[in-house]
Amino acid sequence: MAKTTPLEFIRQVRTETAKIVWPTGRETVMTGVMVVVMTTVLALFFLAVDSFFNAVVKALLSLAK
Predict the structure, then answer these.
(1) How crowded is the C-beta side of 15, counted as CA atoms within 13 Å?
(2) How far apart are CA 54 and CA 17, in angstroms?
(3) pLDDT tens digits for 25-39?
(4) What residue intervals traverse the membrane (predicted)?
(5) How many Å apart are CA 58 and CA 25, to the nearest integer?
(6) CA Rg, the chain, in Å?
């Protein structure tokens, strides 16, 4: 494999970086909002599941008394 000089490496990196399609500000905000919404929905879902199992375990433990 041919060795690349540091200067050639920097040129290659700049060439590849120029090919990147960066998201617009609106796309970034919308993605951030979706992350917050989905995180909230999942948190509520897991809260409900955890509360359900907590109630089941408490009911089972109360039978053991």
Answers:
(1) 6
(2) 51
(3) 999 999 999 999 999
(4) 32-57
(5) 49
(6) 26
